[in-house]
């Protein structure tokens, strides 16, 4: 019983491999429908490979599309060495390259921020400090129910979701308080104060 199920599985796998090879030959010959069928057959697998590296659905979808574009370009050099493995390698390399590039961009950005901080004069640092102090003092003049959300959003740079979680509010409430706070500021504060 067990041996017969293995034989059935091997025949099914063999049939799938033969079908892949036929599709690949048709794609190489320029048949668009064969390309669509090949992509349809492997899109789930390619997504899983890219997602396993980047852990972000949107990025994984984009990388899966890029993988298939790379596949089309590289298909003429494909030598029937196991299509699924070959395609998986392309997907994995795309995802790893993306992750490395993203890490380099973060590094470059933090380097740029440090360079900017170093290049500021003592006067600039003092002026920025004074501005932050003035804004913080002005926030204290806001109605009490706006102060926390304004401080968290504009000074601490937190998102609506983070503020809602920390202050036990609904996101919509945070949004409404910020809207009303901006309205209040426009009516009560002068632009040249900052």
Report on the architecture of this protein:
With 194 residues, the chain is mostly helical. The chain has helices at 2-28, 32-54, 57-74, 83-119, 122-139, 144-155, 160-167, 171-188. The longest helix has 37 residues, at 83-119. The chain is elongated and about 75 Å long. The relative contact order is 0.06. This is Sigma-70 family RNA polymerase sigma factor. Residues 38-104 form the RNA polymerase sigma-70 region domain. Belongs to the sigma-70 factor family. ECF subfamily.
Please write out the topology.
Elements: H1 2-28, H2 32-54, H3 57-74, H4 83-119, H5 122-139, H6 144-155, H7 160-167, H8 171-188
List keywords for this structure.
194 residues; mainly alpha; Rna Polymerase Sigma Factor, Chain: A; Arc Repressor Mutant, subunit A; 2 domains; 83% helix; 0% strand; elongated
CATH topology of the largest domain: Rna Polymerase Sigma Factor, Chain: A
Helix proportion: over 70%
- Low-pLDDT residue spans: none
Give the CATH class of the largest domain. Mainly Alpha
Largest sheet: none
Assigned CATH architecture of the largest domain: Orthogonal Bundle
Summarize the structure.
By secondary structure, the chain is mainly alpha-helical. The protein has two domains: 2-114, RNA polymerase sigma factor, region 2, helix turn helix motif (Rna Polymerase Sigma Factor, Chain: A); 120-193, Arc Repressor Mutant, subunit A, CATH 1.10.10.10.
């Amino acid at each position: 019983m067990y041996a017969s199920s293995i034989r059935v599985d091997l025949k099914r796998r063999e049939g799938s491999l033969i079908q892949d090879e036929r599709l690949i030959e048709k794609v190489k010959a320029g048949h668009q429908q064969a390309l669509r069928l090949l992509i349809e057959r492997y899109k789930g697998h390619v997504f899983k490979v890219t997602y396993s590296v980047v852990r972000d659905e949107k990025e994984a979808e984009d990388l899966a599309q890029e993988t298939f574009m790379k596949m089309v370009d590289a298909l003429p050099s494909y030598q029937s060495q196991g299509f699924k493995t070959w395609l998986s390698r392309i997907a994995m390399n795309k995802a790893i390259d993306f992750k490395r590039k993203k890490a380099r961009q973060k590094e470059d950005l933090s380097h740029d921020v440090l360079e900017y901080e170093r290049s500021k004069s003592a006067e600039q640092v003092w002026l920025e400090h004074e501005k932050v102090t003035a804004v913080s003092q002005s926030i204290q003049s806001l109605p009490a129910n706006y102060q926390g959300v304004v401080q968290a959003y504009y000074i601490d740079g937190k998102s609506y979701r983070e503020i809602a979680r920390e202050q036990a509010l609904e996101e919509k409430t945070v949004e409404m308080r910020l809207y009303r706070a901006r309205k209040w500021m426009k009516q009560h504060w002068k632009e040249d104060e900052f």
